[in-house]
């Protein structure tokens, strides 16, 4: 998972515990999403942007929460000709990202904390960050600020209503992707804590993006790399029904006003 570039909260918002930032600075915490779904997300954006044409400026694409740059490096191969900039608040992550992508800068996600002018970006990649945020509303406000009117937002996040989670919940088992502790996993499959604070269904994600000033063009599904091998064909098949897929890929555009 990518590291969320969270920021000090706005006045009136309860500040996150100091341990949360320390958690994401821990090198043992995963900082990259799956390569297959990073490529799938980049392909969706490449189709939306179209090829770079002679005499036409390249698009500026921000990978917000780039982590170690693995996802951005995967996307760069698909988005050749465009300018891709990785952004994260973790200095450790940025040092690693700088070995994989040409541009990696530090930025925060609230109150103008991204170091870009208003309306300066053509697209934002927001890969598996939103589920880690204390204040996702402020984050979407900041993404909307840096995007030009009509600019593209490609957001991915785990699906609370994934096909296997529906069965697990009926059996009284904590759903995959959810976490009740920052120290260890309790009551669900898996052993690794990654810091998920919020989870979305396809319906909730669509409503959240719409309320944040975006027009949702499409929600697609993607597989999850940690699904046990015998179940992976089912996981791939579930992608054809995004509301059942492991990962939700949303393509939205900043609303023109």
From TrEMBL:
TM helices/strands, residue ranges: none
The keyword Transferase belongs to this UniProt entry's keyword annotation: yes
Pfam families per UniProt: Methyltransf_23 (PF13489)
GO annotation terms (biological process): antibiotic biosynthetic process; methylation
Alphabetized InterPro entries for the sequence: SAM-dependent_MTases_sf
GO molecular function, one term: methyltransferase activity
Domain of life: Bacteria
Keyword vocabulary terms for this entry: Methyltransferase, Transferase
Record region (Disordered): 1-20
Family annotation (CDD domains): AdoMet_MTases (cd02440)
Composition bias, Pro residues: 1-18
SUPFAM superfamilies xref list: S-adenosyl-L-methionine-dependent methyltransferases
UniProt protein name: Class I SAM-dependent methyltransferase
